[in-house]
Design goal:
The protein has 173 residues and is α+β, with helices and mostly antiparallel strands. The protein has three helices and eight strands. 14% of the residues lie in helices and 34% in strands.
């Protein structure tokens, strides 16, 4: 995805809108157990604030992944908003304290490649563990059946095995 900011960069308080879409399948190798099920759609609003460009973005896509409780495959929709700051290379040293934040994107050309930046936002928004729904019952810890599809008659020990010795303590007295 490339964004051309030539017009907005030259005029302070100028705003530009971009609607972009691209396949991100080349990034799948960096996502373990997750694959893109839809193209990545990005909407950007870029505003020239004088010394930098303020970017408000919205990213939408879908992933095919596996539930961490029941192990069923499902589609996980991702809809995130983010803000970013872009600074033209020639303006980067003109900041008040001469230092830039690590999160600032410094660019040298009017056409900016943003795929890596968007992928970074996607990775930051992904959960540690994917769950197909809040009501997911998961797998039975005794027989392994998916409790969302089948009920089982297994008796699940409610006592934490680490505390089993304490249960015997009151019986000794």
């Amino acid at each position: 995805m490339k964004v051309n900011v030539a017009q907005v960069r030259r005029n302070e308080n100028e705003t530009a809108h971009f609607n972009l879409e691209e396949e991100f399948s080349s990034y799948e190798s960096e996502l373990e157990g997750v694959s893109f099920a839809a193209p990545v759609r990005v909407q950007l609003q870029v505003t020239n604030l004088g010394k930098s460009l303020h970017v408000q973005g919205k990213v939408q896509t879908k992933f095919k992944t596996q539930c961490g409780r029941c192990l069923d495959d499902f589609i996980y929709p991702l809809d995130l908003s983010y803000e970013d700051e872009w600074v033209y290379g020639g303006m980067a040293q003109d900041t008040d304290d001469g230092e830039l934040s690590e999160t600032v994107l410094v660019f040298d050309k009017d056409e900016i490649e943003i795929n890596d930046r968007i992928f970074e936002q996607i990775v930051l928004a992904l959960p540690m563990r994917f769950i197909c729904s809040p009501e997911c019952l998961g797998l039975c810890p005794v027989c392994g059946v998916n409790r969302n599809h089948t009920t089982c008659e297994c008796v699940i020990e409610q006592t934490d095995p680490r505390l089993a010795a304490l249960a015997q303590w009151s019986k000794r007295d």
